[in-house]
Amino acid sequence: MGSIGTPPNPENGSASTSPPPASNCDGDERKPQQATIGMPPNAETTPPTETEASKKRKASILPLEVGTRVMCRWRDCKYHPVKVIERRRMHFGGPNDYEYYVHYTEFNRRLDEWVKLEQLDLNSVETVVDEKVEDKVTSLKMTRHQKRKIDETHVEVPLDAYEICRNIGLVLGYWRSDAGHEELDAASLREHEEFTKVKNIATIELGRYEIETWYFSPFPPEYNDSLKLYFCEFCLNFMKRKEQLQRHMKKCDLKHPPGDEIYRSGTLSMFEVDGKKNKVYGQNLCYLAKLFLDHKTLYYDVDLFLFYILCECDDRGCHMVGYFSKEKHSEESYNLACILTLPPYQRKGYGKFLIAFSYELSKKEGKVGTPERPLSDLGLLSYRGYWTRVLLDILKKHKGNISIKELSDMTAIKAEDILTTLQSLELIQYRKGQHVICADPKVLDRHLKAAGRGGLEVDVSKLIWTPYKEQG
Ligand SMILES: CC(=O)SCCNC(=O)CCNC(=O)[C@H](O)C(C)(C)COP(=O)(O)OP(=O)(O)OC[C@H]1O[C@@H](n2cnc3c(N)ncnc32)[C@H](O)[C@@H]1OP(=O)(O)O
Fold first, then answer.
1. Which pTM does this prediction carry?
2. Which residues are near ligand 1 (CB < 6 Å)?
3. CATH no., domain 347-472
4. Which listed CATH number (2.40.50.140, 1.10.1740.110, 2.30.30.140, 1.10.606.20) goes with 41-133?
5. Phi and psi dihedrals of 272, rounded to 5?
6. What's the pLDDT tens digit per position in 77-133?
Protein backbone atom coordinates (compact mmCIF):
# COMPACT_ATOMS: atom_id res chain seq x y z
CA MET A 1 0.00 0.00 0.00
CA GLY A 2 1.27 3.48 -0.79
CA SER A 3 2.68 5.74 1.83
CA ILE A 4 0.53 8.36 3.49
CA GLY A 5 0.01 11.38 1.33
CA THR A 6 1.52 10.46 -1.98
CA PRO A 7 0.86 6.94 -3.14
CA PRO A 8 0.66 6.39 -6.88
CA ASN A 9 -2.79 6.43 -8.35
CA PRO A 10 -3.56 2.72 -8.53
CA GLU A 11 -5.77 3.10 -11.59
CA ASN A 12 -3.58 5.14 -13.89
CA GLY A 13 -0.32 4.72 -12.08
CA SER A 14 0.35 8.42 -11.97
CA ALA A 15 -1.61 10.62 -9.63
CA SER A 16 -1.11 11.23 -5.94
CA THR A 17 -4.03 11.18 -3.57
CA SER A 18 -3.37 13.89 -1.02
CA PRO A 19 -1.81 17.29 -1.20
CA PRO A 20 1.07 18.02 1.10
CA PRO A 21 0.36 20.63 3.74
CA ALA A 22 0.57 24.20 2.54
CA SER A 23 3.88 25.80 3.37
CA ASN A 24 5.64 29.08 2.95
CA CYS A 25 7.09 29.09 -0.56
CA ASP A 26 9.77 31.57 0.40
CA GLY A 27 11.26 29.13 2.87
CA ASP A 28 14.00 26.55 2.42
CA GLU A 29 11.67 23.89 1.15
CA ARG A 30 11.87 25.13 -2.40
CA LYS A 31 14.09 22.61 -4.11
CA PRO A 32 14.58 21.68 -7.74
CA GLN A 33 12.27 18.97 -8.70
CA GLN A 34 12.00 16.11 -11.15
CA ALA A 35 8.90 15.20 -13.14
CA THR A 36 8.32 17.09 -16.28
CA ILE A 37 5.99 15.49 -18.82
CA GLY A 38 7.14 17.20 -21.99
CA MET A 39 8.47 20.33 -20.32
CA PRO A 40 11.74 22.05 -21.13
CA PRO A 41 14.47 21.08 -18.65
CA ASN A 42 14.76 24.54 -17.13
CA ALA A 43 11.08 24.48 -16.18
CA GLU A 44 11.72 22.25 -13.22
CA THR A 45 13.08 24.82 -10.86
CA THR A 46 12.47 28.41 -9.81
CA PRO A 47 11.75 30.55 -12.87
CA PRO A 48 14.63 32.83 -13.81
CA THR A 49 14.36 36.58 -13.28
CA GLU A 50 12.56 38.38 -16.05
CA THR A 51 14.58 39.58 -19.05
CA GLU A 52 13.39 41.83 -21.90
CA ALA A 53 13.09 38.76 -24.11
CA SER A 54 10.94 36.94 -21.64
CA LYS A 55 8.77 40.02 -21.17
CA LYS A 56 8.18 40.09 -24.91
CA ARG A 57 7.42 36.42 -25.02
CA LYS A 58 5.02 36.83 -22.12
CA ALA A 59 3.17 39.56 -23.94
CA SER A 60 2.86 37.33 -27.00
CA ILE A 61 1.43 34.31 -25.15
CA LEU A 62 -0.95 36.02 -22.74
CA PRO A 63 -3.67 35.39 -22.01
CA LEU A 64 -2.95 31.68 -22.04
CA GLU A 65 -5.27 29.54 -24.10
CA VAL A 66 -7.37 26.79 -22.59
CA GLY A 67 -5.41 23.60 -23.20
CA THR A 68 -1.98 25.21 -22.69
CA ARG A 69 0.52 23.11 -20.78
CA VAL A 70 2.79 24.93 -18.36
CA MET A 71 4.54 24.46 -15.02
CA CYS A 72 2.70 25.76 -11.98
CA ARG A 73 3.81 26.38 -8.41
CA TRP A 74 1.74 24.22 -6.13
CA ARG A 75 1.19 24.31 -2.38
CA ASP A 76 4.36 22.25 -1.85
CA CYS A 77 6.21 25.25 -3.38
CA LYS A 78 7.46 23.10 -6.23
CA TYR A 79 6.65 23.43 -9.89
CA HIS A 80 4.40 20.75 -11.38
CA PRO A 81 3.08 20.31 -14.92
CA VAL A 82 -0.46 21.53 -15.40
CA LYS A 83 -2.96 21.91 -18.20
CA VAL A 84 -5.14 25.00 -18.36
CA ILE A 85 -8.75 23.84 -18.17
CA GLU A 86 -10.50 27.19 -18.01
CA ARG A 87 -9.73 30.86 -17.59
CA ARG A 88 -11.63 33.88 -16.33
CA ARG A 89 -11.00 37.60 -16.35
CA MET A 90 -10.07 39.11 -13.05
CA HIS A 91 -12.37 41.75 -11.66
CA PHE A 92 -10.91 45.18 -12.28
CA GLY A 93 -8.00 43.69 -14.26
CA GLY A 94 -6.50 44.65 -17.61
CA PRO A 95 -7.22 42.77 -20.86
CA ASN A 96 -4.60 40.12 -20.09
CA ASP A 97 -5.39 39.75 -16.42
CA TYR A 98 -6.84 36.30 -16.10
CA GLU A 99 -6.99 33.60 -13.49
CA TYR A 100 -6.53 30.06 -14.72
CA TYR A 101 -8.26 26.87 -13.65
CA VAL A 102 -5.58 24.20 -13.91
CA HIS A 103 -5.36 20.44 -13.75
CA TYR A 104 -2.11 19.06 -12.27
CA THR A 105 -1.43 16.28 -14.70
CA GLU A 106 0.41 14.23 -12.06
CA PHE A 107 -2.47 14.44 -9.61
CA ASN A 108 -6.11 13.54 -9.26
CA ARG A 109 -8.72 16.00 -10.54
CA ARG A 110 -9.75 16.86 -6.97
CA LEU A 111 -6.66 19.07 -6.77
CA ASP A 112 -7.68 21.18 -9.78
CA GLU A 113 -7.83 24.82 -8.77
CA TRP A 114 -7.88 28.47 -9.83
CA VAL A 115 -4.39 29.93 -9.83
CA LYS A 116 -2.98 33.38 -10.39
CA LEU A 117 -0.58 34.19 -13.20
CA GLU A 118 2.30 34.58 -10.70
CA GLN A 119 2.10 30.86 -9.95
CA LEU A 120 2.82 29.92 -13.56
CA ASP A 121 6.30 29.65 -15.03
CA LEU A 122 5.69 31.26 -18.40
CA ASN A 123 9.09 30.13 -19.69
CA SER A 124 7.77 26.61 -19.64
CA VAL A 125 4.64 27.30 -21.71
CA GLU A 126 4.02 24.81 -24.43
CA THR A 127 2.28 26.82 -27.06
CA VAL A 128 0.55 23.93 -28.83
CA VAL A 129 -2.94 23.92 -27.41
CA ASP A 130 -4.38 20.52 -26.70
CA GLU A 131 -6.58 19.84 -29.71
CA LYS A 132 -8.91 17.59 -27.82
CA VAL A 133 -9.90 20.44 -25.55
CA GLU A 134 -10.45 22.69 -28.52
CA ASP A 135 -12.49 19.99 -30.22
CA LYS A 136 -14.62 19.54 -27.18
CA VAL A 137 -15.46 23.19 -26.99
CA THR A 138 -16.20 23.59 -30.67
CA SER A 139 -18.11 20.36 -30.98
CA LEU A 140 -20.64 21.39 -28.35
CA LYS A 141 -23.89 22.40 -29.83
CA MET A 142 -24.02 25.67 -27.96
CA THR A 143 -26.19 28.57 -28.90
CA ARG A 144 -24.36 31.71 -29.95
CA HIS A 145 -25.51 33.26 -26.70
CA GLN A 146 -24.03 30.46 -24.59
CA LYS A 147 -20.78 30.62 -26.55
CA ARG A 148 -20.53 34.36 -26.12
CA LYS A 149 -21.05 34.02 -22.39
CA ILE A 150 -18.25 31.49 -22.11
CA ASP A 151 -15.87 33.36 -24.39
CA GLU A 152 -16.36 36.67 -22.70
CA THR A 153 -16.57 35.98 -19.07
CA HIS A 154 -15.66 32.36 -18.39
CA VAL A 155 -17.77 32.43 -15.29
CA GLU A 156 -21.10 31.25 -16.59
CA VAL A 157 -20.23 27.59 -16.74
CA PRO A 158 -22.13 26.35 -13.70
CA LEU A 159 -25.50 27.51 -14.94
CA ASP A 160 -24.93 25.97 -18.35
CA ALA A 161 -23.66 22.88 -16.62
CA TYR A 162 -26.86 22.50 -14.71
CA GLU A 163 -28.92 22.81 -17.84
CA ILE A 164 -26.82 20.41 -19.82
CA CYS A 165 -26.93 17.95 -16.95
CA ARG A 166 -30.66 18.29 -16.69
CA ASN A 167 -31.08 17.78 -20.42
CA ILE A 168 -29.20 14.55 -20.27
CA GLY A 169 -30.80 13.53 -17.01
CA LEU A 170 -27.92 13.94 -14.60
CA VAL A 171 -29.62 16.11 -12.09
CA LEU A 172 -31.58 15.49 -8.96
CA GLY A 173 -31.57 12.05 -7.71
CA TYR A 174 -29.02 9.42 -7.73
CA TRP A 175 -26.29 8.81 -10.22
CA ARG A 176 -24.57 5.74 -11.41
CA SER A 177 -20.97 5.16 -12.12
CA ASP A 178 -19.28 5.62 -15.47
CA ALA A 179 -19.89 1.95 -15.98
CA GLY A 180 -23.42 3.00 -16.83
CA HIS A 181 -22.26 5.61 -19.29
CA GLU A 182 -22.83 3.41 -22.28
CA GLU A 183 -26.40 4.59 -21.97
CA LEU A 184 -25.21 8.11 -22.80
CA ASP A 185 -24.11 8.79 -26.32
CA ALA A 186 -20.55 9.99 -26.83
CA ALA A 187 -21.59 13.57 -27.53
CA SER A 188 -23.62 13.82 -24.31
CA LEU A 189 -20.75 12.38 -22.37
CA ARG A 190 -18.38 14.94 -23.88
CA GLU A 191 -20.81 17.68 -23.02
CA HIS A 192 -21.03 16.42 -19.50
CA GLU A 193 -17.26 16.28 -19.10
CA GLU A 194 -16.87 19.72 -20.59
CA PHE A 195 -19.39 21.34 -18.30
CA THR A 196 -18.40 19.63 -15.09
CA LYS A 197 -14.70 20.34 -15.44
CA VAL A 198 -14.67 23.35 -13.11
CA LYS A 199 -15.73 23.03 -9.47
CA ASN A 200 -18.78 25.16 -8.88
CA ILE A 201 -18.85 25.23 -5.07
CA ALA A 202 -15.50 25.87 -3.39
CA THR A 203 -16.35 25.11 0.24
CA ILE A 204 -19.20 23.86 2.38
CA GLU A 205 -19.97 24.23 6.04
CA LEU A 206 -21.29 21.10 7.69
CA GLY A 207 -21.62 20.82 11.45
CA ARG A 208 -18.34 21.89 13.03
CA TYR A 209 -16.41 21.82 9.78
CA GLU A 210 -15.70 24.00 6.83
CA ILE A 211 -14.69 21.65 4.05
CA GLU A 212 -12.97 22.35 0.73
CA THR A 213 -14.78 20.53 -2.05
CA TRP A 214 -13.14 18.23 -4.61
CA TYR A 215 -15.39 18.08 -7.69
CA PHE A 216 -18.30 19.63 -9.51
CA SER A 217 -21.79 18.81 -8.22
CA PRO A 218 -24.91 19.72 -10.20
CA PHE A 219 -26.66 21.95 -7.66
CA PRO A 220 -29.72 23.84 -8.91
CA PRO A 221 -28.72 27.05 -10.75
CA GLU A 222 -29.71 29.40 -7.94
CA TYR A 223 -26.87 27.95 -5.82
CA ASN A 224 -24.17 28.27 -8.41
CA ASP A 225 -23.29 31.88 -7.72
CA SER A 226 -22.28 30.92 -4.16
CA LEU A 227 -18.75 29.85 -3.50
CA LYS A 228 -19.80 28.43 -0.16
CA LEU A 229 -22.89 26.47 0.86
CA TYR A 230 -24.18 25.86 4.37
CA PHE A 231 -25.60 22.41 5.10
CA CYS A 232 -27.79 21.39 8.02
CA GLU A 233 -25.81 18.45 9.34
CA PHE A 234 -28.97 16.52 10.21
CA CYS A 235 -31.46 16.95 7.33
CA LEU A 236 -28.73 17.98 4.84
CA ASN A 237 -30.77 20.90 3.49
CA PHE A 238 -28.37 23.43 2.05
CA MET A 239 -28.45 27.21 2.07
CA LYS A 240 -26.54 30.10 0.60
CA ARG A 241 -26.16 32.15 3.74
CA LYS A 242 -25.04 31.47 7.28
CA GLU A 243 -28.04 33.37 8.74
CA GLN A 244 -30.40 31.11 6.79
CA LEU A 245 -28.70 28.10 8.31
CA GLN A 246 -28.88 29.60 11.81
CA ARG A 247 -32.62 30.23 11.39
CA HIS A 248 -33.06 26.73 10.00
CA MET A 249 -31.21 25.12 12.92
CA LYS A 250 -33.68 26.68 15.34
CA LYS A 251 -36.56 24.99 13.52
CA CYS A 252 -35.06 21.69 12.37
CA ASP A 253 -36.10 19.02 14.84
CA LEU A 254 -33.86 16.26 13.45
CA LYS A 255 -30.86 15.33 15.57
CA HIS A 256 -29.84 12.31 13.50
CA PRO A 257 -30.43 11.10 9.95
CA PRO A 258 -34.03 10.14 9.23
CA GLY A 259 -34.60 6.38 9.18
CA ASP A 260 -33.78 3.48 11.46
CA GLU A 261 -30.78 3.17 13.68
CA ILE A 262 -29.54 -0.33 12.86
CA TYR A 263 -26.21 -0.31 14.69
CA ARG A 264 -24.84 1.30 17.79
CA SER A 265 -21.52 0.57 19.43
CA GLY A 266 -20.08 3.13 21.82
CA THR A 267 -20.45 6.51 20.15
CA LEU A 268 -20.82 5.08 16.64
CA SER A 269 -24.20 4.60 15.01
CA MET A 270 -25.40 3.50 11.61
CA PHE A 271 -28.75 4.63 10.24
CA GLU A 272 -30.56 3.05 7.30
CA VAL A 273 -32.41 5.61 5.18
CA ASP A 274 -34.81 4.46 2.48
CA GLY A 275 -34.54 6.76 -0.55
CA LYS A 276 -38.20 6.24 -1.30
CA LYS A 277 -39.37 7.30 2.15
CA ASN A 278 -36.85 10.13 2.51
CA LYS A 279 -36.47 11.44 -1.00
CA VAL A 280 -35.31 14.95 -0.15
CA TYR A 281 -32.74 13.67 2.31
CA GLY A 282 -31.48 11.20 -0.31
CA GLN A 283 -31.21 13.93 -2.92
CA ASN A 284 -29.45 16.32 -0.55
CA LEU A 285 -27.00 13.59 0.33
CA CYS A 286 -26.33 13.03 -3.38
CA TYR A 287 -25.62 16.72 -3.99
CA LEU A 288 -23.27 16.72 -1.02
CA ALA A 289 -21.52 13.47 -1.87
CA LYS A 290 -20.99 14.38 -5.52
CA LEU A 291 -18.70 17.18 -4.30
CA PHE A 292 -16.25 14.42 -3.30
CA LEU A 293 -16.97 11.75 -5.89
CA ASP A 294 -15.78 12.16 -9.44
CA HIS A 295 -16.90 9.26 -11.58
CA LYS A 296 -20.46 9.04 -10.40
CA THR A 297 -22.61 10.85 -12.80
CA LEU A 298 -25.48 9.09 -14.45
CA TYR A 299 -28.92 9.81 -13.16
CA TYR A 300 -30.75 7.18 -11.22
CA ASP A 301 -33.71 7.52 -8.91
CA VAL A 302 -33.06 7.71 -5.15
CA ASP A 303 -36.16 5.56 -4.60
CA LEU A 304 -34.19 2.51 -5.62
CA PHE A 305 -31.47 3.00 -3.02
CA LEU A 306 -30.87 2.53 0.66
CA PHE A 307 -28.39 4.86 2.34
CA TYR A 308 -26.32 3.76 5.32
CA ILE A 309 -25.19 6.77 7.29
CA LEU A 310 -22.34 6.45 9.77
CA CYS A 311 -22.52 8.92 12.68
CA GLU A 312 -20.49 9.90 15.69
CA CYS A 313 -22.99 10.59 18.46
CA ASP A 314 -22.78 12.96 21.41
CA ASP A 315 -25.25 14.93 23.49
CA ARG A 316 -25.84 17.37 20.58
CA GLY A 317 -26.93 14.62 18.22
CA CYS A 318 -25.59 12.14 15.67
CA HIS A 319 -23.09 13.79 13.33
CA MET A 320 -22.58 12.31 9.90
CA VAL A 321 -19.07 11.00 9.29
CA GLY A 322 -19.66 9.15 6.04
CA TYR A 323 -22.05 6.86 4.25
CA PHE A 324 -22.51 4.24 1.62
CA SER A 325 -25.44 3.59 -0.63
CA LYS A 326 -26.78 0.30 -1.85
CA GLU A 327 -29.29 -0.64 -4.51
CA LYS A 328 -32.37 -2.35 -3.13
CA HIS A 329 -32.03 -4.94 -5.91
CA SER A 330 -28.80 -5.31 -7.81
CA GLU A 331 -28.58 -7.62 -10.78
CA GLU A 332 -24.81 -7.27 -10.84
CA SER A 333 -24.54 -8.31 -7.16
CA TYR A 334 -23.31 -4.88 -6.12
CA ASN A 335 -23.45 -4.55 -2.34
CA LEU A 336 -22.31 -0.92 -2.40
CA ALA A 337 -22.93 1.80 -4.96
CA CYS A 338 -21.08 4.82 -3.53
CA ILE A 339 -18.96 5.23 -0.43
CA LEU A 340 -17.76 8.44 1.15
CA THR A 341 -15.98 9.46 4.32
CA LEU A 342 -16.24 13.22 4.70
CA PRO A 343 -12.73 14.72 4.39
CA PRO A 344 -12.32 15.83 8.05
CA TYR A 345 -12.89 12.22 9.11
CA GLN A 346 -10.73 10.48 6.51
CA ARG A 347 -7.76 8.24 7.35
CA LYS A 348 -9.22 7.31 10.72
CA GLY A 349 -10.52 3.87 9.73
CA TYR A 350 -14.13 4.87 8.93
CA GLY A 351 -13.80 3.86 5.28
CA LYS A 352 -12.74 0.36 6.30
CA PHE A 353 -15.60 0.26 8.77
CA LEU A 354 -18.12 1.16 6.06
CA ILE A 355 -16.69 -1.44 3.67
CA ALA A 356 -16.75 -4.11 6.40
CA PHE A 357 -20.31 -3.09 7.23
CA SER A 358 -21.42 -3.54 3.61
CA TYR A 359 -20.07 -7.10 3.67
CA GLU A 360 -21.77 -7.82 6.99
CA LEU A 361 -25.08 -6.83 5.38
CA SER A 362 -24.32 -9.16 2.46
CA LYS A 363 -23.61 -11.99 4.88
CA LYS A 364 -27.00 -11.41 6.54
CA GLU A 365 -28.60 -11.52 3.10
CA GLY A 366 -26.77 -14.76 2.34
CA LYS A 367 -25.23 -13.21 -0.78
CA VAL A 368 -21.80 -12.33 -2.07
CA GLY A 369 -21.23 -8.72 -3.04
CA THR A 370 -18.89 -6.35 -4.82
CA PRO A 371 -18.65 -2.56 -5.03
CA GLU A 372 -19.97 -0.82 -8.11
CA ARG A 373 -17.27 0.05 -10.67
CA PRO A 374 -15.28 2.04 -11.44
CA LEU A 375 -13.59 2.53 -8.11
CA SER A 376 -11.92 5.86 -7.48
CA ASP A 377 -8.19 5.90 -6.62
CA LEU A 378 -9.00 6.16 -2.90
CA GLY A 379 -11.82 3.63 -3.21
CA LEU A 380 -9.46 1.12 -4.80
CA LEU A 381 -6.79 1.65 -2.13
CA SER A 382 -9.36 1.15 0.62
CA TYR A 383 -10.90 -1.96 -0.97
CA ARG A 384 -7.55 -3.55 -1.77
CA GLY A 385 -6.48 -3.03 1.83
CA TYR A 386 -9.73 -4.48 3.15
CA TRP A 387 -9.69 -7.52 0.86
CA THR A 388 -6.03 -8.21 1.60
CA ARG A 389 -6.48 -8.11 5.36
CA VAL A 390 -9.66 -10.17 5.45
CA LEU A 391 -8.39 -12.87 3.10
CA LEU A 392 -4.89 -13.15 4.52
CA ASP A 393 -6.19 -13.30 8.09
CA ILE A 394 -8.21 -16.36 7.10
CA LEU A 395 -5.35 -17.95 5.16
CA LYS A 396 -3.03 -17.45 8.12
CA LYS A 397 -5.35 -19.22 10.53
CA HIS A 398 -6.63 -21.91 8.17
CA LYS A 399 -5.14 -25.39 8.23
CA GLY A 400 -5.23 -27.45 5.04
CA ASN A 401 -6.64 -26.60 1.62
CA ILE A 402 -9.15 -23.87 1.01
CA SER A 403 -10.88 -22.91 -2.23
CA ILE A 404 -11.82 -19.49 -3.55
CA LYS A 405 -15.46 -20.50 -3.30
CA GLU A 406 -15.00 -21.28 0.41
CA LEU A 407 -13.24 -17.97 0.96
CA SER A 408 -16.10 -16.23 -0.81
CA ASP A 409 -18.73 -18.01 1.32
CA MET A 410 -16.90 -17.05 4.51
CA THR A 411 -16.37 -13.39 3.64
CA ALA A 412 -19.19 -12.50 1.18
CA ILE A 413 -16.44 -11.14 -1.10
CA LYS A 414 -17.13 -11.96 -4.74
CA ALA A 415 -14.87 -14.68 -6.18
CA GLU A 416 -13.45 -12.34 -8.87
CA ASP A 417 -12.32 -9.86 -6.22
CA ILE A 418 -10.66 -12.64 -4.23
CA LEU A 419 -8.89 -13.86 -7.33
CA THR A 420 -7.60 -10.43 -8.36
CA THR A 421 -6.48 -9.65 -4.80
CA LEU A 422 -4.57 -12.90 -4.41
CA GLN A 423 -3.16 -12.60 -7.91
CA SER A 424 -1.91 -9.09 -7.27
CA LEU A 425 -0.14 -10.43 -4.17
CA GLU A 426 1.27 -13.28 -6.27
CA LEU A 427 -0.31 -15.82 -3.97
CA ILE A 428 -2.06 -17.72 -6.68
CA GLN A 429 -0.83 -20.08 -9.34
CA TYR A 430 -2.64 -21.77 -12.18
CA ARG A 431 -1.83 -25.49 -12.16
CA LYS A 432 -3.50 -28.26 -14.16
CA GLY A 433 -6.49 -26.08 -15.05
CA GLN A 434 -6.99 -24.95 -11.47
CA HIS A 435 -6.17 -21.89 -9.40
CA VAL A 436 -4.08 -22.90 -6.42
CA ILE A 437 -3.46 -20.62 -3.44
CA CYS A 438 0.17 -20.71 -2.33
CA ALA A 439 0.35 -19.20 1.12
CA ASP A 440 3.76 -19.19 2.76
CA PRO A 441 3.22 -17.83 6.31
CA LYS A 442 6.19 -15.44 6.05
CA VAL A 443 4.89 -14.01 2.78
CA LEU A 444 1.41 -13.64 4.33
CA ASP A 445 2.88 -11.71 7.26
CA ARG A 446 4.76 -9.41 4.93
CA HIS A 447 1.63 -8.63 2.91
CA LEU A 448 -0.46 -8.15 6.04
CA LYS A 449 2.03 -5.68 7.38
CA ALA A 450 1.99 -3.77 4.11
CA ALA A 451 -1.83 -3.70 4.08
CA GLY A 452 -1.82 -1.33 7.06
CA ARG A 453 -4.08 -0.95 10.03
CA GLY A 454 -7.28 -2.93 10.39
CA GLY A 455 -9.53 0.07 11.07
CA LEU A 456 -12.59 0.20 13.25
CA GLU A 457 -14.16 -3.18 13.84
CA VAL A 458 -17.81 -3.86 13.10
CA ASP A 459 -19.26 -5.58 16.16
CA VAL A 460 -21.80 -7.85 14.45
CA SER A 461 -23.62 -8.52 17.72
CA LYS A 462 -24.68 -4.83 17.67
CA LEU A 463 -26.19 -4.99 14.17
CA ILE A 464 -29.96 -5.22 14.27
CA TRP A 465 -31.12 -5.48 10.69
CA THR A 466 -33.26 -7.46 8.33
CA PRO A 467 -32.68 -7.35 4.56
CA TYR A 468 -34.85 -5.02 2.52
CA LYS A 469 -38.18 -6.41 1.36
CA GLU A 470 -40.54 -4.55 -0.96
CA GLN A 471 -43.65 -3.68 0.99
CA GLY A 472 -47.20 -4.23 -0.26
C1 LIG B 1 -17.69 2.33 -5.30
C2 LIG B 1 -17.23 3.74 -5.00
O3 LIG B 1 -17.97 4.52 -4.46
S4 LIG B 1 -15.67 4.24 -5.43
C5 LIG B 1 -15.52 5.83 -4.74
C6 LIG B 1 -14.90 5.81 -3.37
N7 LIG B 1 -15.15 7.08 -2.73
C8 LIG B 1 -14.41 8.19 -2.96
O9 LIG B 1 -13.45 8.21 -3.72
C10 LIG B 1 -14.89 9.44 -2.26
C11 LIG B 1 -13.76 10.19 -1.63
N12 LIG B 1 -12.96 9.32 -0.77
C13 LIG B 1 -13.40 8.90 0.43
O14 LIG B 1 -14.52 9.17 0.82
C15 LIG B 1 -12.45 8.08 1.26
O16 LIG B 1 -11.14 8.30 0.82
C17 LIG B 1 -12.72 6.55 1.24
C18 LIG B 1 -14.18 6.26 1.57
C19 LIG B 1 -12.40 5.93 -0.11
C20 LIG B 1 -11.82 5.92 2.32
O21 LIG B 1 -12.25 6.46 3.54
P22 LIG B 1 -11.30 6.64 4.81
O23 LIG B 1 -12.22 6.85 5.98
O24 LIG B 1 -10.26 7.64 4.58
O25 LIG B 1 -10.67 5.20 4.87
P26 LIG B 1 -9.75 4.56 6.00
O27 LIG B 1 -9.32 5.54 7.02
O28 LIG B 1 -10.43 3.34 6.49
O29 LIG B 1 -8.46 4.18 5.14
C30 LIG B 1 -8.54 3.25 4.13
C31 LIG B 1 -7.17 2.94 3.55
O32 LIG B 1 -7.14 3.46 2.21
C33 LIG B 1 -5.86 4.05 1.98
N34 LIG B 1 -6.04 5.49 1.88
C35 LIG B 1 -7.20 6.20 2.08
N36 LIG B 1 -6.98 7.51 1.84
C37 LIG B 1 -5.68 7.64 1.48
C38 LIG B 1 -4.86 8.73 1.13
N39 LIG B 1 -5.35 9.97 1.08
N40 LIG B 1 -3.58 8.50 0.84
C41 LIG B 1 -3.07 7.25 0.89
N42 LIG B 1 -3.79 6.14 1.22
C43 LIG B 1 -5.09 6.35 1.51
C44 LIG B 1 -4.99 3.68 3.15
O45 LIG B 1 -4.44 2.43 2.90
C46 LIG B 1 -6.00 3.59 4.26
O47 LIG B 1 -5.58 2.75 5.28
P48 LIG B 1 -4.51 3.30 6.39
O49 LIG B 1 -4.98 4.64 6.84
O50 LIG B 1 -4.55 2.24 7.45
O51 LIG B 1 -3.19 3.35 5.66
1. 0.80
2. 1-2, 4, 7, 17-18, 292-293, 336, 338-341, 346-352, 371-372, 375-376, 378-379, 381-382, 385, 452-453, 455
3. 1.10.10.10
4. 2.30.30.140
5. -105, 125
6. 999 999 999 999 988 777 778 999 999 999 998 999 999 999 999 989 986 655 454
